Predict the 3D structure of the following.
Amino acid sequence: MKREDIDACFAVCFTGYKDRAPRLLGELKRAGIDDVDVIWNFPTPYDNFIMSRIPVLPVIKKKPGYFSAGMGQYRAMKTAYHRGMERILIVEDDCRFLKDVDRVWDTLEKAPCDGNILMLDSFKVQRCGDTANGWAPLKVGRSTACLVMDRKAMARFIEMHESPVSGKYAHPMLRICDHWLDQKYAPGLKMYFSDPKLAIQCNTPNASNSGPQGVSIYYKNINFDDYAPY
């Protein structure tokens, strides 16, 4: 998959942290991406006006950032799908690529042609096969910080977000954060993660999952110096 095969890039940005958006746009420019649609998701914490107009699930009050990120992802997918796009890149505002951006694009060119989801960032993964050309098949994974998805995947996850909270989608976390990257809930989709990672989340110190280096505590055995600083 070449750079020109991606129809659009959507940046999911937090309304409450407006300083992140220009930093992300600068990082995307460094990666050779100039045309970006910015999706502003709901502010955190939410005011009473917003919270009174959405179905309130108990987990939202505990982890509002998950809901905000999930809604931003949903709005990006919905926008792209209705524009007739075939393949998009979605990037959250704390994402940073490898310093060697040529390696990012070289690895994407070697991505499996049947991949509906390509995760450039990931953690807590369960693979269902070996790594080949920098990509491994995914059974379960976390992180929607940076991924490529095709039209089939967009349709699947839009349907998941819009379905009643019952039956196979009863778990509320499935519709408000990155837990939908699970083959159990996405039968028929081919999902892969880059191995090693092509991008990571460089969280600011106020992030709940940020460690001493300002990087997600979920990452294991990676060299943070290989990635662009926040």
